[in-house]
Amino acid sequence: METPKITQAMINAYDEYTHLTLDRRRFMEKLTLLAGSGAAAAAIAPMLAASGAKAAMVEEMDARLTAEDITYPGAGGEMKGYLAVPKDASGKLPGVIVIHENRGLNPHIRDVARRMALEGFVALASDFLSPQGGTPENEDKAREMFSTLDMGATVANGEATRAFLAAHDKVNGKVGAIGFCWGGGMVNRMAVASPELGAGVAYYGAQPPAEDVQKIRAPLMLHYAGLDERINAGIGAYMAALEKNGKTFEIFVYDGVNHAFNNDTSAARYDKAAAELAWSRTVAFLKKNLA
């Protein structure tokens, strides 16, 4: 059987399913129409989704790192997280909060935390579904849980995470945040709410209201996917508000790539060139602002 052809319309349908109002049954019906048959749709659906079976870029037992599941105090209760620390670092290091997509703290985000640690940071991937018991294995269930989160309390947990990481004995007191999709939006929210945030990097994240931008103190780096019409609709107003309020920021739009282009576990949407360029920019930005 030939490898099914994935079209932009199929990717858009998947984005509608994972972020908007399309449930799985209607998504599969739409995908079947686009693919031409139920068999083709069944073959394409896993290629659109992120795969937990994809090999990690940095293995869990990498000898250069100490990585472990932890708990720590949140704003209103215990938070769960995954902490990755370089083993042979001399002196204290900057801290970076790694914020997951709307699928929760999964193996991919743990891998991103390990990658960040290998770049010379103490990386904490927090589980922002902790107040509801933590990230479930079922991604559809996780997405449902995000829709019921109290965002005020969630942002408060983000600030509690920053304070915890800043006080870690391996951290120099400076903490930034990097987030993807839902996590990108959280980075923007934290930048508004936390004057102590040292830097923020948001990948294809929802923008905050323009009237809140004046509260931002952290320098920001904002990565957007050129084909991501849903999120990109807010770029103009956000950029104008950042400029009007004299904020420090960099914006990059990567032409011809989709939302989630950084996620190497998603065969249809991952773009290696864009991901590597954005990552190199991100690491340099965080090192500059958190030194």
UniProtKB/TrEMBL annotation:
<protein>
    <submittedName>
        <fullName>Dienelactone hydrolase family protein</fullName>
    </submittedName>
</protein>
<keyword id="KW-1133">Transmembrane helix</keyword>
<dbReference type="GO" id="GO:0016787">
    <property type="term" value="F:hydrolase activity"/>
</dbReference>
<feature type="domain" description="Dienelactone hydrolase">
    <location>
        <begin position="79"/>
        <end position="288"/>
    </location>
</feature>
<keyword id="KW-0812">Transmembrane</keyword>
<dbReference type="Pfam" id="PF01738">
    <property type="entry name" value="DLH"/>
</dbReference>
<dbReference type="InterPro" id="IPR006311">
    <property type="entry name" value="TAT_signal"/>
</dbReference>
<keyword id="KW-0472">Membrane</keyword>
<keyword id="KW-0378">Hydrolase</keyword>
<dbReference type="InterPro" id="IPR029058">
    <property type="entry name" value="AB_hydrolase_fold"/>
</dbReference>
<feature type="transmembrane region" description="Helical">
    <location>
        <begin position="31"/>
        <end position="49"/>
    </location>
</feature>
<dbReference type="InterPro" id="IPR002925">
    <property type="entry name" value="Dienelactn_hydro"/>
</dbReference>
<dbReference type="InterPro" id="IPR051049">
    <property type="entry name" value="Dienelactone_hydrolase-like"/>
</dbReference>
